[in-house]
Amino acid sequence: MLKRPENTLSPVRGRSVRFRLLAIALLPMLVILPLLLGVAVIRWNEKFNAALISKVNGDLTIAHQYLARILEYTSEHLQALGLSARFRDVVAAENSADLDALLEDRRKALGLDFLYLADGDGKIMSSAPKIASASIRNDWPVVVSALKGTPSIAIDIFANSELGDIARGLAERARLELVPTPNAVPTDRDAETRGMVVHSASPVSLNGRQQAALVGGLLLNQNLVFIDTINDLVYRAASLPAGSQGTATLFLDDVRITTNVRLFEDRRALGTRVSSAVRSTVLDQGKTWLDSAFVVNDWYISAYEPIIDSYGKRVGMLYVGFLEAPFIKARYTTLAIILIAFLAITAAIVPIFLRWARAIFKPLERMTDTIEKVESGDLGARTDLPVVNDEIGVVASHLDSLLNRLQVRDRQLREWNEELNARVDERTRELQLANRQLEATTKQLIVSEKLATIGEVTAGVAHEINNPIAVMQGNLDVIRDLMGDKASLARTEFNLLDEQIHRISQIVSRLLQFAKPEEYAGYVERHAADNVISDSLPLVRHLLNKARIVVVRDDRSSRLVLMNRTELQQVVVNLIVNAIHAMPDGGMLTLRTSDTDIDDRPGLAIEIIDTGVGMAPEVMQRVFDPFFTTKRREGTGLGLSISQTLVTRQGGKISVESEPGKGTAFTVWLPESN
Predict the structure, then answer these.
(1) Could you tell me the domains of the chain?
(2) What strands lie across the sheet with 289-295, from one edge to the other?
(3) Among candidate residues 152, 156, 176, 153, the one with its CA nearest the CA of residue 166
(4) Is residue 134 very low, low, confident or very high in pLDDT (cuts 50, 70, 90)?
(5) Are 292 and 324 in contact (CB under 8 A)?
């Protein structure tokens, strides 16, 4: 009898055939359609926001063009005044009263707040209105440019005292009391006294000889006509939906100096300040702000751009924007209509579909119950549905036929499955065992072959080198004897030859010791590691002094080790020399001993720690390989390999820890002598 696997979960009644069919049928309407609708709404919302930003950007372009036109208009008319026949006649007549009258007439006609004529030295020759102080500034870039023959116009910031020098009324108009504003950058100022001026200068010639400049200015502080004109141009009637309101503002730094934004119904928001976020983006970073912003007491779709003065500095901002609330309301209203329509359509369609689907659910549920019984182990369960000539009836008939054949073949499949599993398990065990044996044998063969080859070559080379060395040393002694007293003349050269021959002998000895370490193992005795380190330090003292290395001793070990003293000293000296080479510019060498147990074996550890250049991971992996060296001309690459051989032969081990730029630590562990 077919039995269900033990790890198969029982069917969940909530996920019946009815449930699945309903899910398949209703998925497009209740899941996919809402998702598509949601994506469409999100996309529409993004386009809606983009349209608002695009509109406010266009509004800012109109405002910017109007401001540019004001500058262009002022500059053109000032140049026209300087080139007019009337101006030349009045100047030629040298009548100061007529010149003052002409300037006053043109100042009013051009809508300027001041207009004066300055000679080549910047001295005021005539002005309208009358200049209040003779110390008026004449080093403005626009004035300097005009005196050099080039007309210029810019927006400049005048100090209150500079406005007072021109006319007392300008200084009073410029002053604005600051109004505390939420989200603005904190300030200790209580008033804005500077003035933002449309500053224009045009070159003129006095009697065809002397170069002079006509200088005019329009104060923008509290200039409501200017800002209302911008607002009327940008936000004409019916350009915004009902309930929205367009606004425009001119900022000096972050202070509103002229605006149609309202604090209350009858009071403009003069003296209020922009938020810190907008100030940072526009004034500090020089970018254009195109986004929602909190303006005084409400949210607006806003556009801000920086205003640059004649010195190239960001001194203020031009703003346009419109209330965001009506657009948000329209957006939410549209979304609500879409949601209500979707729910209404869904509520009308779903009951109709359920009524049609009922005739399908019953036979499918009958087949589902039959399958559940078979899965529970009852292979004799059948649907027993009446024969109906439709798709479901055919499926039910085929299901009963399949269940009949399934019952027959179940027993055969189980028998074949058990036999196959047994054979697979047996073959798997055999292959795993053979694979492990093959890997171990291969590694052992590689290591043995490599060591045998290196040992044979090394021993042969060492013996071959020893014979020429003996001949060289013997002939050197013969030469020294033949020369007699004259040998002292070449004493230095003889000493150098002796040292180099001795060096070659030492290298050969190391090669032989690496090739046949068992022939060079001396007698062993018990030693205290601290004493061996103390005896080793004089051998490398000259290297320590030369490299300006400080040695720190930390002797904590009380145990003894059983090892040939010379071999142990050789290991210590080799590690100290390596540490010295790693610190060419000086450093600290720490020599530490301690009682340390490894794998429940008592022993002691010798640590040689330097603060040198350290080693990369790939170098640290090969540091104990024979003939591997990083010292190039100075090393043979056998020191650490021989040291590892000597330590390992005594049942110990040597390890290394290093990090580039932070130094290296070698640790030699040896078992305690019994």
Answers:
(1) 15-377 (3.30.450.220), 522-671 (3.30.565.10)
(2) 255-259, 246-252, 314-323, 298-308, 289-295
(3) 156
(4) low
(5) yes
